[in-house]
C-alpha cells in the first residue's frame, strides 16, 4: 500500500525573505548534510569546471555564507531567497544578476539558438532551488519561483531567466539535475519559453 501523498503547502503559509535576513543555521538546515545540496552549496554555476575539484565542500559552504550575507539584515546585496513555514526554514532559491555565474556564461546549452549579450548584468537568473528534506513535493519551489520575479524587478533587473528541465509523469529526474527547477514551476510563475536548446532543457524568461 502506497503511503499518503505529502500534504501541499499553500503559498500563504510561507514567508519568503532575502537570504541576508536568514541565519546561517537556517541555510544549513535547508541544505542538510547529505545529498547533492550539501556538497554543492549552490556553487555549481559559481565555480568553473577546471576549479571545481580544488574547492572543498567546506569552502563551498563558506562561499555560500559570504554570498548570501546571511545574518546581516542591513547588507546591500544577497544571492537568493529563503522560505519559511512558520519558524522552520524549508526552501532556498538562488537569484542574482546573470553575470554572477561565470560557469553559466561558459556553458553552451543555455545560449544555443540565442543572440544574447551574456555580460548584460541587468538580466538576472534563477539557477538553483533547494527544498529541505521532509518538505519536498509540497509546493515550496512554486512559491519561491514566484517570489523571484518581484525580488529581481525591485532590484533593477530588466529581465529574469531560468534554465529549466522538462519533467514527464512516470519519468523520474534525479534531484541533482532538477536543482534548476522544472518548466512547469516557472510557467506557473509567469515565465515564458524563449528557447528549447535540448530535448529536456528549456530557457524560460520574464521581461520587465
Walk me through the structure.
This protein is α+β, with helices and mostly antiparallel strands. It has one domain (11-207): 3-Layer(aba) Sandwich (Aminopeptidase), CATH 3.40.630.30. The chain is 29% helix and 23% strand. The chain is built from eight helices and seven strands; from the N terminus they run βααααββαβαβααββ. The chain has helices at 24-31, 35-40, 49-52, 57-68, 102-106, 140-154, 175-178, 183-188, and strands at 14-18, 80-85, 88-97, 123-131, 159-165, 192-195, 201-207. A seven-stranded mixed sheet has the order 1-2-3-4-5-7-6, with helices on both faces. Strand 2 and strand 3 (88-97) form a beta hairpin. The longest helix is centred in the C-terminal third of the chain and has 15 residues, at 140-154.
Amino acid at each position: 500500500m502506497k503511503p499518503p501523498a505529502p500534504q501541499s503547502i499553500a503559498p500563504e503559509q510561507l514567508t519568503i525573505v532575502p537570504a541576508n535576513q536568514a541565519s546561517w543555521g537556517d541555510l544549513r538546515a535547508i541544505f542538510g548534510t547529505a545529498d547533492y545540496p550539501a556538497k554543492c552549496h549552490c556553487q555549481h554555476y559559481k565555480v568553473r569546471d577546471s576549479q571545481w575539484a580544488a574547492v572543498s565542500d567546506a569552502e563551498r559552504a563558506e562561499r555560500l555564507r559570504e554570498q548570501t550575507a546571511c545574518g546581516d539584515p542591513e547588507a546591500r546585496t544577497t544571492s537568493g531567497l529563503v522560505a519559511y513555514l512558520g519558524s522552520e526554514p524549508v526552501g532556498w532559491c538562488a537569484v542574482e544578476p546573470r553575470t554572477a555565474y561565470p560557469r553559466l556564461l561558459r556553458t553552451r546549452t543555455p545560449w544555443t539558438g540565442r543572440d544574447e549579450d551574456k555580460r548584460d548584468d541587468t538580466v538576472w537568473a534563477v539557477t538553483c532551488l533547494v527544498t529541505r528534506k521532509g518538505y519536498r513535493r509540497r509546493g515550496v519551489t512554486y512559491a519561491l519561483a514566484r517570489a523571484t520575479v518581484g525580488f529581481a524587478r525591485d532590484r533593477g533587473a530588466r529581465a529574469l531567466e531560468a534554465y529549466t528541465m522538462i519533467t514527464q509523469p512516470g519519468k523520474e529526474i534525479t534531484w541533482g539535475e532538477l536543482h534548476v527547477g522544472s518548466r512547469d514551476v516557472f510557467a506557473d510563475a509567469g515565465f515564458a519559453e524563449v528557447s528549447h536548446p535540448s530535448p529536456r532543457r528549456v530557457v524560460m524568461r520574464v521581461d520587465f
